[in-house]
Amino acid sequence: MRLRTLLLSIALATMAPALPALAHHGWTWAVDELSELTGTVKAVYVGNPHATLDLDVDGVVWHVELAPPGPTMATGFTEETVKPGDQVTAIGNRSKDPNETRMKAVRITAGGKNYDIYPARVPQD
Amino acid sequence: MEEALGAIEQLGVVQALKTSFFAYPVVNALHILAIGALVTTVILMDLKLLGLFDEMPEPHFIRLLRRIALGAFVVASATGLALFSVRASEYAAMPLFWAKMGLIGLAALNFIAFITIRNGPRRVFALVSITLWPLALLAGRFLGFVL
Ligand code: HEM
User: Fold this and answer.
1) What pTM was computed for the model?
2) What SS3 state is found at A67?
3) All structural domains of chain A with their residue ranges
4) Can you tell me the ipTM of this complex?
5) Yes or no, beta carbons of B52 and A7 under 8 Å apart
6) Domain A29-121 CATH class label
7) CB atoms within 10 A of CB A23
């Protein structure tokens, strides 16, 4: 009986680290404040599981996450909207980890046009 | 290698999966379903080898669960390959992706060793298995936060 309890505890303990990972979705990893990044496009991907944009900001590559492809394309932003070398501004929430160059974008500005990825989170201007 | 990965991404079905609203989440859900069945049955078999559930006859117990585990492994691999194909070059450049493949490979080898080596150290195989499969699961879950 004691062995059984021990083994079951070990089994559960090996699974426990999965809990924070399962909870780690959406915005939890990002700070609450919005900030702005301007850089040149290194790569653009509009597809599942979510669209991404890699921006070179003064020599540092930022990984900008957009929404899943449906909502992203609904704003008019597709893989043809920007190409490597284009200047783009992203407004969004940076990672809480200051060493991680990652942002969850709410608005992308490219070619003088705004693409509001998460309109409800874009500040009213 | 890079051309091959790029060619996978350009396949018609893969392009459709890439921007699909339904197909990708469904494939993803099947991946999760298969993983759940796989890891659960594997852990139950490992615990059995480690001495739990003595009241159940081992041949029946293992025969049932192993069938589920093997079927689930096939589904997990097929759906995993589909998820991979959408961003093949990105995943292939991620150490974490290869860590996950390595863990799955080692776990599979451990299984093969277990069924081929007669009178082998059963508890050791079980302990290796019960460690590697949950680690593969963790590596898989973290992939989505690194890409
Ligand atoms: C050949 C086999 C496999 C391949 C090629 C594969 C590939 C993938 C890919 C590409 C993803 C998507 C990651 C993302 O969100 O960006 C994924 C997700 C995942 N995989 Fe696998 N996988 C395989 C087998 C397995 C196995 C055997 C397990 C478990 C032991 C596993 C656990 C996971 C988990 C937990 C996720 C996250 C699902 C989610 O949160 O949506 N995978 N896999």
Assistant:
1) 0.84
2) coil
3) 29-121
4) 0.78
5) yes
6) mainly beta
7) 9
